[in-house]
Write a structure and sequence with these properties.
Number of helices: 11
CATH architecture of the largest domain: 3-Layer(aba) Sandwich
Number of domains: 2
Number of strands: 10
CATH class of the largest domain: Alpha Beta
CATH topology of the largest domain: D-Maltodextrin-Binding Protein, domain 2
Strand order of the largest sheet: 4-3-5-10-6-9
Strand content: 15-25%
Order of helices and strands: HHHEEHEHEHEEHEHEHEHEH
Low-confidence stretches: none
Radius of gyration: 27 Å
Mean pLDDT: 88
């Protein structure tokens, strides 16, 4: 006889992650911190399971907890079940190569100043693949955020379980409006207003070390985001450190000049994926297109108008 319609005798499933964390830490407080819940929420979740089973899962004494024999048995089963679900979800995500949507997480400044102006051409060449672009920087959790890949400036630690593919090294140098440079007395950086970003406050120091410059500013101005700093340079408010590829199009169009050229910053832009790009034909197509679009950037070549 089939058990397909058999009613399962299970405890509240939504409470199981709270029980698993409490059992693993042997602490309701530490479980609450991990899951960003209150101590009371963990306690209520465990109580729901105990009420459903009719047996204590923890021994509670002096604000400490220990698993009972029944709790140990349930803990082992819950860990196996949650690990199995996690693995299945990851496998589905890793191998959904037939999806017509490729979710891409990208550094905001790179996305707005370089990637987005080129996505129309990618769309024309790949009409069957839609790019779902998410703007985000720093560490990424591809599974939690539902992204297939991330493009990042590798200035932070990346978890070892990710595949990291180098795209191109970063080169940077002082950039400003051509007329602004003409107006600077004897074209000396020490006579310029230096533009800074609070999200990348060491940009000028990195360039000075890389180039051997000992210049210092006549005046300074700060902006909340690197994107605004570069736009301020376009708008003749001063001189900013402009990395390739973020200022590539502005240099090519003559909106900016890089009078001192570009020097390597020591950082790379990278592609972060769950597997090697070649295992997903969608990612491989996007990766190959990225590298074709980035010709010249990897050598620090400053485009000329």
């Amino acid at each position: 006889m089939s058990n397909f319609h058999r009613k399962r005798n299970l405890p509240p499933l939504a409470a199981l992650p709270a029980f698993e964390a409490a059992a693993r830490h042997q602490s309701f407080s530490r479980a609450a911190e991990e899951l960003h819940l209150t101590h009371g929420a963990i306690s209520r979740a465990v109580a729901q399971i105990e009420e459903r089973l009719g047996i204590d899962l923890f021994v509670r004494r002096n604000r400490r907890v220990w698993l009972t024999p029944a709790g140990e048995r349930l803990f082992k089963s819950v860990v196996t079940a949650l690990d199995g679900l996690d693995g299945t979800v990851e496998e589905i995500h890793r191998h959904d190569s037939a999806s017509p949507i490729l979710s891409v997480s990208c550094e905001p400044s790179l996305a707005m100043r370089w990637l987005m102006p080129r996505l129309g051409a990618f769309r024309e060449a790949n009409p069957d693949l839609n790019i779902d672009l998410r703007l985000a920087g720093g560490p990424v959790d591809l599974l939690v955020e539902g992204c297939d890949l991330a493009i990042r400036r590798a200035d932070f630690g990346i978890a070892e379980d990710y595949e990291v593919t180098r795209l191109w090294p970063e080169f940077a140098g002082p950039v400003c409006d051509p007329n602004c440079w003409e107006d600077i007395l004897v074209r000396d950086l020490s006579n310029a207003r230096w533009l800074h970003s609070r999200t990348r406050p060491d940009a000028w120091d990195i360039w000075r070390r890389a180039s051997g410059s000992n210049s210092s500013p006549a005046s300074e101005q700060y902006f909340d985001h690197f994107f605004f700093t570069l736009q301020a340079a376009v708008n003749r408010l001063g001189t900013a450190i402009g990395p390739l590829p973020l200022v590539y199009d502005d240099l090519l169009a003559g909106r900016l000049v890089a009078p001192y050229g570009m020097a390597p910053t020591g950082y790379d832009y990278v592609l972060i994926t769950l597997d090697r790009p070649g295992r997903d034909p969608r990612i491989l197509r996007f990766f190959d297109w990225l590298m074709a679009e980035a010709k010249g950037i990897e050598s620090g070549v400053v485009p000329q108008d």
